[in-house]
Design a protein that fits this description.
Two copies of one chain form a homodimer. By secondary structure, chain A is of the alpha/beta class. Helix content of chain A is 24%, strand content 30%. Chain A has three domains: 2-107 and 238-306, FAD/NAD(P)-binding domain, CATH 3.50.50; 111-235, FAD/NAD(P)-binding domain (3-Layer(bba) Sandwich), CATH 3.50.50.60; 320-436, 3-Layer(bba) Sandwich (FAD/NAD(P)-binding domain), CATH 3.50.50. The first copy, chain A, has helices at residues 13-25, 46-50, 63-66, 128-138, 151-160, 183-195, 242-246, 292-306, 336-341, 391-403, 408-412, 430-436; strands at residues 2-9, 31-35, 40-41, 60-61, 73-76, 79-83, 88-91, 95-103, 107-109, 122-124, 143-147, 166-170, 199-201, 206-211, 215-220, 225-227, 230-233, 237-239, 251-252, 255-256, 269-271, 278-279, 286-287, 320-324, 327-333, 346-354, 365-373, 379-387. In chain A, helix 1 (13-25) runs parallel beside helix 8. The interface between A and B is large, with 66 and 66 residues.
């Protein structure tokens, strides 16, 4: 039996950052990380690897670079059971005794029980093997069906889109990206993708796959029979909670239940990243937050608590950005719809501006929407669509404003910079304009 | 004699935004704007117009679009004297009686008394006429001397640089851009420009110009005699204070003295923009802040006070960005040097990251330096150099953090977003890394 101070199950960003942080703060602690496969795949880059923009081998970092070079002990194995009272994890090949355990078991693509889903050329996108298999099949594929119009669905659709391919997105809900954006922003995304030649079917679900060995048609709830050479199921992910659940650890609505210190219902066992339930900063309610940046932050919080520093996580505002067709879209906090569902009376500020001075070439519209609580004018959320330049950092700025409970007045007073190639005109910063519009 | 409720002298961003804001809030007030020439030139775009990246005619907006369409009464004329007790401005052609007066007289390029400075092909860059004259002379120019290595100097040098031209920057101080950046960042700028083939002479001043009608050589303090077809004097600007001064209005160290309401020493006379002295938010001391974004904000503050809303301006942190050689550099708050000069004990956080995921093509280094007060870890300033993408909005985020008196801990807890093409890797946001480095 192996012994370690801290045992981490999972080698995604959560597990790695937890290990690194502990080794950095307390180099003498023995930290062991167990994961199933060699190499660290950068999941967000997979759509780009599919499209050949990045070489698939470049998005897999070596375990040495990412893990072992920092003094973490790496074990390629699979955790099967936690014996909570004994502080032991049983793996396929061994037993490991721990003082503290970190569950960073991640998530896996959700695959609904659609008849025919086992056929060839029906894929999910998660592992580097998925990337390689899809790339292989793409060589001869003309008709590509993407089931699910979330952030990954629209990125893959946009990246794979070319004149030789016919791409269709099938979305169950009335709009694309509607979990993260309001209808008006979803419509902008739909218009851009449609204009690029991508077919969008909303309010429609997949009822079955036809074909023999290989998929040939997709059958939909609207009785369509769509030719398909490749189907990509991009319906979201589900937390990997089986190990925790089967060992008696409490499960929440959206993954393993944790407190503000990332502790599970068992005091010396922590859960972080995609497998753990997050808490929304604004509403205080459980929320899914399967973002790498959430994983990284939760990992740091868990690590600090493990080494004895009481650090609380005050919750997520889920800042996220996606790129498609030379545009980017970003969001943070609550959407208008989510704010209303959570009982907020709101006022919405809007503005349109440009990513650089309007008189310069290659300017691109920036459209922004800010959601404020009506009475206090406290900012609750924001959405931006524009050229790629500037979206992510504006979302970060809004994230900071939300977490610091700033108001429209605070944002209207932003002391911003201006430059003809790098920002809008000096009087046209969209965050300021949208904030002023509600004062 | 003409009569008006509010008289604005000057048609730059300060004057225009003051007028627009007043008309928007109180459309019935009569607002009259006096300026010398037709058209509104976007000054920051002038380097791009010199280089032909923007057509010079596209950086001059019409008075109709910018001014008169909003109900402001425009007078093309020149203010000569203010009769303070009578509330009258004497112009070249007329007299205008006002209830409130706004001085937005701007600034003009500083030209030191160097022998020979009257020769042809020695230019400053401020008006659209300057742009046209320089462009005309550029056609045949091979040797271009830029005197002054500030933000405009380096941008113009970089934009005009091509294989046919020999460009030299002459800077009096030991480093380029040293008013706004610390030495380490200045050195990066110098290295990039040198690598691009631009000659940089620091610790050197211009002692004279040789030539007949037209400039032919520049003589320097180090006894150099440098061939020159064009000389651009880019040594900074000086506030236009003559009108205020000659009328008995108090002048500060860096322009017309104003209080926190942008009021001058005369109660119903306001001063805004490049002609007015600004107050540094952190030190509370007078500071030059000749930025269009400062002008816009001061204009809004003056406008609100003019219509009867007591709004205070809490001072500038001077966020600014410059672009050169496909890079951008940005700064906000105090530099390390300025912080020390102002008596702060400081600690500096540094980080290097990339503008996108390190495994993606066309990544570019992001280098950041954050200056914190040692004891409180309150952020005092920041400097960033990187590819163009993301610099301006990170500077804005830091600006917000400085004005909200945030600490390194607050910034280390930033809930940021990640995307392979739009941000660094999920664990590599440079603001967070630099903040963590001082915790």
């Amino acid at each position: 039996m192996k012994k370690t101070d801290v045992l981490i199950i999972g080698g995604g960003p959560a597990g790695i950052v937890a290990g690194l942080t502990i080794k950095k703060m307390k180099p003498k602690l023995k930290v062991t990380l167990v994961k199933k496969e060699k190499g660290v795949t950068i999941l967000c880059s997979e759509p780009y690897a599919l499209a050949g923009i990045v070489n698939p081998k470049d998005i897999v970092f070596s375990d040495k670079k990412m893990i072992t070079s920092t003094g973490i002990d790496l074990v390629i194995d699979e955790a099967k059971k936690i014996e909570i009272k004994k502080n032991i994890v049983l793996t396929k090949k061994n037993k490991i005794k721990f003082k503290k355990l970190v569950l960073a078991t991640g998530a896996r693509p959700f695959v609904p029980p659609i008849p025919g889903k086992e056929m060839k050329n029906i894929f999910t996108l998660r592992t580097i093997k998925d990337v390689k298999n899809i790339r292989q099949s793409l060589k001869k594929a003309k008709n590509i069906i993407i089931v699910g119009g979330g952030a990954i669905g629209i990125e893959v659709a946009s990246l794979l889109n070319n004149k030789k391919r016919k791409i269709t997105i099938i979305e169950l809900l009335p709009h694309l990206v509607s979990g993260a954006y309001d209808e008006d922003f979803s419509q902008d995304v739909e218009n851009v993708l449609s204009d690029a030649g991508i077919k969008i079917l909303t309010n429609e679900s997949v009822k079955g796959f036809l074909g023999e060995n290989k998929v040939k048609y997709v059958l939909t709830s609207k009785k369509r029979k769509i030719p398909a050479d490749i189907v990509l199921l991009s319906i979201g992910v589900r937390s990997n909670i089986d190990l925790a659940k089967s060992s008696g650890i409490k499960i929440g609505k959206f993954g393993i239940w944790v407190n503000k210190y990332q502790q599970t219902s068992v005091k010396n066992i922590y859960a972080i990243g995609d497998c753990a339930q997050a808490i929304d900063f604004i509403t205080g309610k459980p929320t899914p937050s399967q973002l790498a940046t959430t994983a990284v932050f939760q990992a740091k919080v868990a690590a600090m608590n493990i080494i004895g520093k009481k650090v609380k996580y005050d919750g997520v505002v889920n800042p996220a950005v996606s790129a498609f067709e030379c545009l980017a879209i970003g969001r943070v906090g609550l959407t208008e719809k989510q704010a209303k569902e959570n009982g907020f009376k709101i006022i919405v500020g809007r503005a349109e501006s440009y990513n650089r001075y309007a008189c310069h070439p290659n300017t691109c519209l920036v459209k922004i929407k800010l959601i404020f609580e009506k009475k206090t004018k406290r900012i609750l959320g924001g959405q931006i669509i524009s050229g790629e330049h500037g979206v992510a950092q504006r979302i970060n700025l809004l994230s900071l404003a939300i977490k610091k409970k700033m108001t429209a007045g605070n944002l209207a007073n932003l002391n911003y910079c201006a430059h003809p190639e790098l920002t809008p005109l000096p009087f046209a910063e969209p965050i300021v304009m949208a904030s002023e519009s509600v004062l």
